[in-house]
Amino acid sequence: MDASEENNVKAVRRSKEEKKLLRKQIKASHTLLKHEGIHTTPQLTRSLVVANGGLGNSVSREELSAALKEMGEVESLLMPPHKPYAFVTYRCEESALKAYTHLNGQKLQCGESSVMLYLAYVNSVTYEEEASVPLPEGLVLLEDFVSPEEEALLLAAVDWSSTNEDVTAQKALKHRRVKHYGFEFRYDNNNVDKDKPLPAGIPAECLPVLERCLRNGQINVMPDQLTVNQYESGQGIPPHVDTHSAFEDTILSLSLGAKTVMEFRHPDGRVVAVVLPGRSLLVMKSESRYLWTHGITPRKFDMVPACEQQSPDHVTPEPGTCSNLTLSKRGTRTSFTFRKIRPEPCRCAFPSACDSQGAPSTLSPSTPSPPALPCCHADAARLEEEYVHRVYDAIASHFSSTRHSPWPRVCHFLSSLPPGSVLADVGCGNGKYLGVNSEMIAVGCDRSSALVQICAERGFHAFVSDALNVPLRTASCDACISIAVIHHFSTEERRLAAMRELVRLLKPGGHALIYVWAFEQEYNKQRSKYLKDHNKEHNGKENLTKNTSEDRREPHGKSAIQNSGHLEEGYEPVGKVTDGKLSVHTNRTAFNTQDLLVPWHLKEGKKPGEEESGDGVKRNKRKEKSKKVLTNQTRIDSNPGLSPGFDASMSPGLRLDTDDATHSPGSKPSPSGTTQTSSSHLKSESESHLTAVFHRYYHVFHQGELEQLCSQVGGVKVQSSYHDQGNWCVILEKD
C-alpha cells in the first residue's frame, strides 16, 4: 500500500470526534486568516497559533503557559492585547508536534470558566510593539511605599461600621464606600466648606506615612483633608481632574489592597495607563494634577505586564500594547487620597482647566455654554470624544439596562441572512443584535470599551474600535449593520467616511443596514413613539406602562429621554445652527435644529438587566453568559470628576453616585472653541436624590439626506429606504 492509499484509509477510519475536531481546526484557521490575516500552514514548524487562547478570551499568561510547558520547553509566548489568540514558539519541533497533538480540542480551565483550544502551525510570528510613552509631567509612582504591616494598620484605622456621618461624612454609595476626614467634599456644590472642618481629622495612623512624604520631598506641607474610597472588583468611576479651587497642587494617592490600572488622558488625546500595585504611592503635581484627567476603568480584570518590575520612567500607552502581558484579577482596593485645602483662588499655569481663572465652574448655578459646531477635523474629533465617547463610557451600565428589545425590522434583516453569513455590527452597543440569528457568525465593535465589556459578559464576540477604522479585512463580511451610530459624527465628511468603512467591509453582493435618527419625528401624519411618550412623564420621571418596550422609549437608539415637552402645532423646522453653538434639546419634543446635544439623565439604583417603569414595576433580569473582557474605560479614584459632556441637574427620585465631584478640564473651552458641559452635584443619601445629566452630540437627518450621503459612496447602491419610528433607514448592496 502506497502512502496516499494509507492516508485515505486513515481518513476513513477517523472517528466522529476526530472529524469534528478537524472541522473546528479548519474553521479556526479560516477565521484567523479572514479577520486577522494570520496564515497557517499544514507543515510542522516550531511555532503555533493558539486560537481561543488569548487575553481577549480571559485566558491569563500563567494559565496558558502552564499548559504549553507540559508539552516541552517554550521559547516564547506572545499574547497580543484584546485578541482571542496567542502565539507560542517551542525550542524544538518535537515539542510543537506534541502540543499540536495533545492540546487541540482540549479545554483550558480559566478560573470559573473554560475555553476550547485549537492549534495550528505558522511559519513565523511577528508583532510590532508600540513605543513606550513617558508619564505625564509631574507624575511619580513609588512602589512598596508602605510595608505590609503599615498597610494593615492603615486599613484597620478606617471604621466602616461607624454610622456617625457627622464625624467622617461616610457615604454608602452604589459604586463604593467613601469616608472624608478633615473636610467633607460637598456633593451639592462640588467643593469643600473651608469654614466647617469635620470633627474627625486625618487618623493618627496616617501621620508616619505623611511625615515620610515630607522628609522625602513628595510634599512640602502637611495635608489636612483625606478621602478614603473602597472599591470592589468591577467598580470604577469616570475620568476627572480634582477641583482646582478646592485643593493645592500636590495630591497623594495611596493604593492599599488589590492592584489596579489608572488611565491618564491629556486634552490632546494622549493616553497613559499606569499600573498601581498595592502599597504604592502615586504623587500628582503640576501638569499631571491640573491638566490630565485620571480615572479607573470599571472591570474585573486588568491587562498588566507579566513581570512585576516596571520602569518608573516609562509605561506603555495602554495596558496591553506590549507583548509580555497577562491578566490580573481585581480584588478589593482601598485608596487613601491626601490633599491640602486651598485658602486662596488657584493661580496655576493651566487656566484652560482652572475654575478659579475663568473656566466654567461647577459652582455656577447657570448652565455652561454649549460647544460650537466643529470647523475642522481636529475640532470634530474633540467634540465627539467629549460628547459621545466619554459620555457612553460613563453611562454604559444604565444605557445597557435600557437596551434589551431588538427592533423588529432590524431583526427581520438579520433573520433573512443565509446560515453561515458573517455579520459585523459596527457600533454594537451592548450587543443586543449579536444574538438575533444564531446561524450566522456575528462580531461587534464599539468605541465604548465599557459597552464592549458588557457584550463579552453576555457571551458575544466584540472588540473596541472606532467606526472610521474597523480592524477587519476588506470584503470579509456578508452583511454589516450600523444602528444609531452615524448620527454621532459631527461633520458630513466623517459621516461619509463611516459609511465608506461599512462598505469596505462588505463582500461583493453584501448588504448593509443603516439607521440614523430622523429630524422628521412626525411622518405621514404619524408621530413617532419618541414624541408620543412625552405625555407619559410627570415629576421628572418616566411613567411607562409595564409592557413599554425600548422602541417606545427611544426609537432612535442611543438616547435617553427624561424631560417632557410639548409638540408645537404648525412647527416649521429650522435645520441649521444659527449662532454657531449647539443647543440642548428638550427630550420628547420635535427638533428645531439638526445639530444638537441630547440629555441623558443617569439613573442610579438600577441593576443590570432591569428596567424600571413609572409605576414601580421592574423587569426581570435576563440571564446572561458570564464572560470577561479587557477594555479601556475609565472612572475615577479619589475625586470624581466628571466626564466632559456631563452636566448636573436636580430631579426628584434620581441620583448619581460619584466620588468627590470635581471640576473637569472638560468644562473649559478648548482651543477649538468647544466648551464642555461638566461637573456633578450630589448630596448625602438622606438628602434629595439628584440626577446627573450627560449631553450627547447628534446630527439628526432630514428626509433624503441619508440617501444623498449613500450616493457619494462608490460601488454601492441603495436597495431600499424607509422611515421606522423616528429613524431614516437604508439597505445598501455592494456591487
Automatic annotation (TrEMBL):
Region annotated Disordered, chain positions: 532-573, 599-686
- According to the entry, every stretch annotated as the RRM domain falls at 46-124
Q: Where is the composition biased (Basic and acidic residues)?
A: 532-557, 601-618
The UniProt catalytic activity note for this protein reads:
5-(carboxymethyl)uridine(34) in tRNA + S-adenosyl-L-methionine = 5-(2-methoxy-2-oxoethyl)uridine(34) in tRNA + S-adenosyl-L-homocysteine
Q: Which residues cross the membrane?
A: none
* PROSITE patterns registered for this protein in UniProt: FE2OG_OXY (PS51471), RRM (PS50102)
InterPro entries documented for this protein? AlkB-like (IPR027450), AlkB-like_sf (IPR037151), AlkB_hom8_N (IPR015095), AlkB_tRNA_MeTrf/Diox (IPR051422), ALKBH8_RRM (IPR034256), Methyltransf_11 (IPR013216), Nucleotide-bd_a/b_plait_sf (IPR012677), Oxoglu/Fe-dep_dioxygenase_dom (IPR005123)
Biased composition range(s): Polar residues: 629-641
| Keywords on record | Cytoplasm, Iron, Metal-binding, Methyltransferase, Multifunctional enzyme, Nucleus, RNA-binding, S-adenosyl-L-methionine, Transferase, Zinc
Which one Pfam family would you cite for this protein?
A: 2OG-FeII_Oxy_2
Task: State the GO CC annotations.
Answer: cytoplasm; nucleus
Q: Which SUPFAM superfamilies match?
A: Clavaminate synthase-like (SSF51197), RNA-binding domain, RBD (SSF54928), S-adenosyl-L-methionine-dependent methyltransferases (SSF53335)
Amino acid composition bias (Basic residues), ranges on this chain: 619-628
From start to end residue, where is composition biased (Low complexity)? 664-681
The organism's superkingdom is given as Eukaryota
Family assignment from sequence similarity: Belongs to the alkB family.
- What is this protein called in UniProt? tRNA (carboxymethyluridine(34)-5-O)-methyltransferase
Q: Which organism is it from?
A: Haplochromis burtoni
